[in-house]
Structure formats: structure tokens, C-alpha cells
Amino acid sequence: QDLIKKNSANRAVVEHRRRLLEEWLAWRASVEEELKAEGIVDALEAMNVGKGDDFKDGEEVIE
Amino acid sequence: MRPILLSGHERALTQVKYNKDGDIIFSVSKDHVVGAWFSYNGERLGTYHGHQGALWTVDVDPTTTFLATGGADNTMRLWNVQTGKLLKTWEFGSSIKRVEFSSDGSKLLGVTEKRTGHLSTIVVYDIVQDVDAEQTDEQSLRIVCDESKATVAGFSYGAKWIIAGHEDGSVSQYDVKGGELLDNVMVHEPDMPITDMQWAPDRTYFITASKDKTAKLISTKDLNVMKSYNTDTPLNSAAITPVKDYIILGGGQAAMDVTTTNARQGKFEARFYHKIFEEEIGRVRGHFGPLNYVAVHPLGTGYCSGGEDGYVRVHHFDKPYFDFMYEVEREQARM
């Protein structure tokens, strides 16, 4: 019984996180869309930091 | 990797900043001196002398050409990063609490303190992009904050708006052209001052820290509070990490309020929260007093903190930091 309760509680937590992540990603997509439409270059450039080679360079520094 | 300790300042640190490449850290302190350090090994690159009082704030432009500082001597100053030469001094009737460049470096703002006979203002100067040029005395914009004094401010993405945080716990959005107040939203507990405001890399959202022991993640466009991070200590600073979806908070009770019990409870820690899930995921110890400022490496590879104890601690993130993922994040990554 306890195990079932615990499992459903865990499931609720995971569901909640999944929803938060989806909400966040949806918001980010809408922002990116808007910046593209408005042609705001500085923000669009900044968005790419960490997505591509920059991140790999950074990791090498740490090693 | 062990943290690097930057010892050189004789009094409390008030702000620390990475340049855009992240190879240099600039620090300001109540000891009147501006420091510049190599972030990867902590070697001191130089100091900038001239201020006659405690320094409250520092910022560096995106090309690491100009350095701006402000402090209790009622001046805002512009320096040549490379030579250390003082290029310009702007004088005011009260101290400068905050300086910040726009993301393209063409504008510099300063936040002036409210004092008898002096209103709280946000002033903007257009910066001539030449170290040999004469910089202007003319303010291109002056905003008077008569409702509640501004404590922090900065330029939004595309320099469309100026966003300010206030002593009363609210944030404002001003039009960057005419300076009109477009919106003001109470985001923290009323009359709990906002102590810090830092941008996401693209400046479409930002984080505020407050004495009310919380930090808030706010969208730039509509000042909507998207996330809230609750702690057990007054906060002095909050930063958003690129690459990983974390935020870093720093704070602690002021020295006079600290009992030994409090110190043992270890409130002088940098706290890491998951940005999206609002959950605490880790703490980093080290300082012997409150953390006055936390700054994140622009490539997300590390962070540094400036403490009331007079030290800057520089941390390089290890592999587990990058590997850590919630199960739902793993799912998302696989999709």
C-alpha cells in the first residue's frame, strides 16, 4: 500500500516537472520566434552561446 | 577543480564581472581599488586607481575596451581597459550604485543614489567608440525615480527598454528613447529592496535578488514573474547560468546580525537552483561572510563570487555539473 502511494506521489512530481519543462520550452520558442520577426540581432546571437562550438571550447578549458 | 582565491582587496567586494570572453574578471571593493584578474589562474592583470571612496559597481563593454565604475565619491568613471588610463569622470551629487553598458556597448547607464536634495536617477551616456576620443558630458537620457529609488538597472535586448529594480521591491520598464515609465510591477515583498538584477544571455529575461530571501525570474517584455526561488537568507545577488538551466544565488546576514549559530548553519554559501523546476540542487561553501555578488562565466564554464570577507572565489565547473540532469530533461534530450 505504502509503495503504491509513494509511486503515485513520485509520478505526480515527475508529471509536474515534465509540464514545467514543456511550458518553459514553449515560452523560449515563442520568444525566439518574436526576436526573429523583429530582427533583434544581439539577442539572437546571444541565444546561440553554448549551443554550438562555444560549449566544447569551454569544456576543453576545464579538463 | 579547486576554487581559485583572488586575494588583493583589503575590504569587502561589492561587484565582480567577467568580460564577454570570460578570460578576465573585474572586481570592485570598498577599498577604492578596481582589480582585473585572469579568470583561469587568478593572476592579477592590473589595478585601476583614482576613486576616492568605496566602489559599488563595475561593468565592462562587449569588446573589453572600456571599463565603467561608480562609487561613493559621487563619480562614475570610464577607463581604458588595456592601459588603465582614466578617460572620463562624470560627477554627481550622490553616489553611483550601479553602472551597466547596453549589449552593443554604445550606451552606458548609471544609477544615482537618493540623498537629501538629490533625487534617485538613471542617467544614460552615449559612448564614443574610440579610446582617444573625448567622451560627452551630455546625458542622452535622464530618468527620475520619484516613486521609489532605483537600486539596479540595465538595458534590455536591442536596448528597447531600461529595466530597473527598486528599493520598494518593484521593477520598472522605461522606454529607452523618452524615458517614460511604461510599467511597474511589485515582484518582491513590499518594501524589501531589490539588491541585484542580472540578465539571461539574450536579455529577454532576468533575475532579481531581494532582501525578502527570494529571487525571481522575470520576462523583460511584460515583467511577468515566471519563477520564484525561496531561500532562508537575505539575498544580495542572483545570476543565470548559460548552457545549464541553473541559477546561482548569494547572500547572508550582515555581520552585525550574525550569531555564531548562524555562521555555523553556513548561510555564506552560493546556492544553486534548477532554473525551471525552482528546486535547490547544491551549495558551495567557502566565504567567511555574506556573498555580495555572484557572476557567471559567459560561456557557462564557471562562476565567481565576491564576499564581504574581501575575497573573490573563482570556480570552474567540473564534469558532474554538466552531466547532472533531471529524468524529464533526459527524456527531452532524447526526443
Automatic annotation (TrEMBL), chain B:
GO terms for cellular component: eukaryotic 43S preinitiation complex; eukaryotic 48S preinitiation complex; eukaryotic translation initiation factor 3 complex, eIF3m. Keywords: Cytoplasm, Initiation factor, Protein biosynthesis, Repeat, WD repeat. InterPro entries: eIF3i (IPR027525), WD40/YVTN_repeat-like_dom_sf (IPR015943), WD40_repeat_CS (IPR019775), WD40_repeat_dom_sf (IPR036322), WD40_rpt (IPR001680). It comes from the Eukaryota. WD repeats lie at residues 6-37, 48-89. GO terms for molecular function: RNA binding; translation initiation factor activity. SMART domains: WD40. Its main location: cytoplasm. Transmembrane segments: none annotated. It is found in: Cytoplasm. Gene3D superfamilies: YVTN repeat-like/Quinoprotein amine dehydrogenase. GO terms for biological process: formation of cytoplasmic translation initiation complex. Component of the eukaryotic translation initiation factor 3 (eIF-3) complex. PANTHER family: EUKARYOTIC TRANSLATION INITIATION FACTOR 3 SUBUNIT I. Component of the eukaryotic translation initiation factor 3 (eIF-3) complex, which is involved in protein synthesis of a specialized repertoire of mRNAs and, together with other initiation factors, stimulates binding of mRNA and methionyl-tRNAi to the 40S ribosome. The eIF-3 complex specifically targets and initiates translation of a subset of mRNAs involved in cell proliferation. Belongs to the WD repeat STRAP family. Belongs to the eIF-3 subunit I family. This is Eukaryotic translation initiation factor 3 subunit I. The lineage of its organism: Eukaryota, Fungi, Dikarya, Ascomycota, Pezizomycotina.
